[in-house]
Amino acid sequence: MQVGVLALQGAFERHIKTFQKIGVNALPVKSPDDLEQVDRLVIPGGESTAISMLLNLNSLRAPLQKRISEKMPVFGTCAGMIVLSKTVLDGREDQIPLNAIDITVRRNAFGRQIDSFESELEVKGLNEPFPAVFIRAPIVESVGNSVEVYARVNGQIVLCGNDSTLVTSFHPELSDDNRIHEIFLSIESKDR
Question: Does the model's pTM come out above 0.90?
Answer without folding.
Answer: yes
